[in-house]
From TrEMBL:
Record key words, sorted: Lyase, Pyridoxal phosphate
Keyword Nucleotide-binding: no
Source organism: Nonomuraea endophytica
Cofactor requirements of the protein: pyridoxal 5'-phosphate
Protein name per its UniProtKB record: Threonine aldolase
GO molecular function: L-allo-threonine aldolase activity
Gene Ontology cellular component list: cytosol
Amino acid sequence: MSSTKRRVELRSDTFTLPSPRMLEAMVAAELGDDVYGEDPTVNALEALAARLLGKEAACFMPSGTMTNLASIMTHCPRGSKVIVGEESDIYVYEAGGASVCGGVIYHPIPNNIDGTMDLDAIAAAFPPDSDDPQFALPALLCLENPQNHRGGKVLPAAYLREVTDFARENGLTVHMDGSRIFNAALAADVPVAELAGYADSVMFCLSKGLGAPVGSMAVGTGPFIRDVRRLRKMLGGGMRQAGVLAGAAIVALENRGRLAEDHQSARQLADGLEKIPGIAVDRAEPGINMVFFRVLSMDNPTFIAAAQAQGVALAELGHGQIRAVTHYGVEPEDIGYVLDVIRSILTDSTRRSHADHKPVLAG
């Protein structure tokens, strides 16, 4: 297949661009100074986020990393432990912020293939004697739903009930990294507030599947959000006329139903990949807007570069797999193009391999 200027961006749903309706909302947003609590558009966004997730209050934050950091620091005294999955974004991708900024110790727990953490492993994070001053005490359990590194797995409701009951019985607060919690709720066919109800606080991203240009939300109790807001200021996240961004975020939340289109595109892509020889798909059920797969006949850098040359942007993520993420901006016809590109790459690779191993006849 010849080179082309066509581009399909599948590395992440963070590459979405604001819709025309979002751009209109940004221009028309009523503004004030949010650090003073006087930006009406930010206030409306926070009220909407709290209502949708069934929490008392919410705080608009610049990023998911800052939201998770402020949440952990709010829940955890200095010198305490936060229990995290060793495959979690908080542990892998957020630069150790809770230790650097909050004096909080990460205690990583293995994530199973389905994204869960065994209760026995969580229990082992507790010291044998909580009165012994030599030991740091756990204060917080962080869950990630859906679990990104383990293939976009949605944590089952039965597990969420079990693990949060265990946490609370043992004096732990629960924070949920729900960067794509609306995708998880759609896949599980439950209200998003039901998933949020398993945690004392939740972070979710506005700038991933929801498609807003910037921002994440912290949601929880009123006192929790008050303290998060103070930490947001301390960490440098106080934004002034932030209603420019909040206007787009409100549109993203109001238009959250379109996430079903992304899930359908991901299913279409997974179905097509399963029919291509040399591709092994890690099928997540229920699935969200992610497809994880392996290329059996090529190394990942070579395959990714070949796809990039034909306008298909992919990335490796976790355990040697390639991740493709569908989102606003990826049309149904783009999926067919992506499948054609991948078929052509593997066909060309097989043809070259056969040519390289052609026997040489003696003269």
